Amino acid sequence: MALRDLTTDYAGRGTPMFRLALKTGVLTVLTLGFYRFWMKTRMRRYYWSAIRPGGQPLEFTGRPTEMLTGFLTAVVVLAFYIGLVNLILMFLSFSLFGGDAPAYLLSFLGLVPMIFFAQYRARRYILARTRWRGIRFGLEPGVKGYVWRASLWWIVTILSAGILWPVKTFELEKYRTDRTWYGDQRFEQTGGRWSLMGAMKHVYIAAALIGAGSAAAALLEQPIWFVATAMGAAWAPLGLAHWKAESFKRLTEGKRLGEAGFRCRPRGGRIVAIYLLGGLAIAGLLIALLFALGMGIGILLSVFDPELIAQGFDDLASLAALPAWVATMAGLTAYFAAFLFWGVLREVFITMPVARHLAESTEIVNPDALNAIRQRPRDEFAEAEGFADALPLGDGI
Amino acid sequence: MTGAGAVLEAFADYVDGESAVVHRVALRLSPDRLTIALPDGTAFDWMADELREVPDQADSAGLVLAPAGDMLHRLHVGTGEIARLIRLNAPALRRRPPVENKGKIAAWAAGAIASVSLIIFVLVPVMANQLALLLPPAGERALGDATFEQVRTALGDADFLPVELCETPEGLAALTKMEARLDVGPDLPYPVTVAVLDHDLVNAFALPGGRVILFRGLIEAAENPEEVAAILAHEIGHVVNRDPTRDALRLAGSIGVLGLIFGDFAGGTVMLLLANQLINAKYSQAAEIGADDYAHAVLTEAGLPPAALGTFFERLRAEHGDEAGWAAHFSTHPRMVERVDAALEAQARAEAAGGAAVPALSASEWRDLRSICGPNSASEQGAAGRVGRQ
Questions:
Q1: What is the ipTM of this complex?
Q2: In chain A, which residues have their Cβ closer than 8 Å to the Cβ of B140?
Q3: Residue B75 pairs with which residues in a beta bridge?
Q4: Quick check: B35 and B27 in contact, CB under 8 A?
Q5: Which domains does chain B have, with CATH numbers?
Q6: DSSP code of A133?
Q7: pLDDT per residue over B88-99, tens digit each?
Q8: Alpha-carbon distance B75 to nearest alpha carbon in chain A (angstroms)
Q9: Phi/psi at B224 (nearest 5 deg)?
Q10: Chain B residue with minimal CA distance to A317?
Q11: pLDDT digit string, tens, across residues A53-86
């Protein structure tokens, strides 16, 4: 008898996530960024353990110390490149072209392959440190093939003015998925090169409306055509949410793990709602925070310069009443508080709800095939995700 | 009794780390151990003091257990009495595993610090010094023009307009006369371009390609034209020594490396600027003394008193105090006492050589220079406002 399909529970909750993100974020700021490896590890443990296919949580088993070592490795390599190459490029750029734009361009182009390299290595590290039902995931070595494919497909995407973005997404996902293992069972990405094009249709419509509306308004000199542009601009975010949900669905349902597979029913409307309501909540709370900070500074001012209340606060010059160190401390606190809360609230109101929706709408089909899967050896991976950490790649999971 | 001493039985999920099968196991909690019985009838014990909890779990009511030092076995205990009792019974549930590879981490850390220090403090400055001399004059000018616009925008008001240039014809004429008096043409591959910006800062600086910027605040703080001439000579000294070009190139090399180290944590940019300021201050102190020396020589040659540089700094020091202690590290200027002394020594040498003392500008030219930003410049209103408040 076949087992029932495994649905996925999601155990993440706003309050504990807020507490964890805030605590680790404050520690990161106080340690000048040194704690961020611990922060990342702890946040990942939480996010991973929240996802429970068939009631069994994922586990992230990475260690902060190995991330630190990996980061140090990357710094040694990258510091030479970034320091010396940028300096020489800047020199050549001003010598030959009399401007800094060529230097920035070349410096960025030189970093692009390194970014692809870092992405693949980070994925390998993360999968090697992810377990479910006691079994490790893994990604085969293959970074060279990834770097040239990613470069190629990015060039194709740019040359096609973004139209072939779905092809790039599929090809790179296929390269990674076909090298991904769960225990001794290899994943396979099915579906063709063109299978994601349909998921992008609303973005194409929005782009066409914007482009055609602007062109018609300019050529016919009739501003009424800007209505089409406005419609396109309103359509675009909805189209992007649809792409996010639909491409996730198609890629996930196209994945095979031996005899097991996936069913996935995410809704674009839900993603839009999360971004909209989450964005509103974040904006409201941040405004409240800034207001509180302003009140705090006002109280400080009136303590140091009581006359100010009688005279009124004309301009920023009135801030001169504060002793320099108080002003510096207040400024630094406000600056870091705003950044910190922005990051924390984004986790609580955007990242986690999206993860919840994607997890809860995914099921594992034919799960009894999983019982035959055996453990794979540990991937000792000294460099961890150091390159991704040193290069500004954002927090891709 | 349901206390810690009781024996309690319950069920949980167990994975052995060898296959993906989830075993439903029977648990038996005794005071000193947890007995786990598999469906096939075999059973084993995990001792209470060896039980460890997997941390940071989203499901805070349940419990994920592993024996100490074991990488693979996991026991998923759901919510309920059993989880509560295990928490009571296991004394070291939250003890962390010892940090492995301490030596390796320390070695990598030392290697990374050494390599980054080598790059920032040795390689980048050495290369910047060499390349600054090789940069063609046109390239230097382009670099200076780009920086000039950035400075004007950065100092602009809340309405994001760049700071105004000050250029009344009479004021410019006075300024030109002062530049001509200092006559530095032969030392440079490009002409010196002096600009006055309408800003309260008591400051002046040089940019690559022979651009020198004076702020209105500085001209107002000077008591006589000789002081302005002395500052001008000092900034021209920076231009002749190619200091701004070196600085710009060094910045291009070191800013990316610093960004690398501080990563993308909230507000990393502040750390970046602070650290960069610290690094630059070290080089600039030597550069400032070099520019002072140049200014003393040029002033003496032009028959102007080198001591003017000293009197100006002396007055700044009286108003703002010397930068002592930790703040001195963040300052790009060497301690003023030393600079004032150096200026006085140069003055003594100039007098010994019998330098002629012709004023840098006539009284009317000095008035013109002081109103180079227009007769009713914002400063006077601003200054009046400030006086009114005190």
A1: 0.84
A2: 94
A3: B14, B65
A4: yes
A5: 8-89 (2.30.29.30), 113-387 (no CATH)
A6: T
A7: 888 888 888 888
A8: 10
A9: -150, 165
A10: B386
A11: 999 999 999 999 888 888 888 888 888 878 888 8
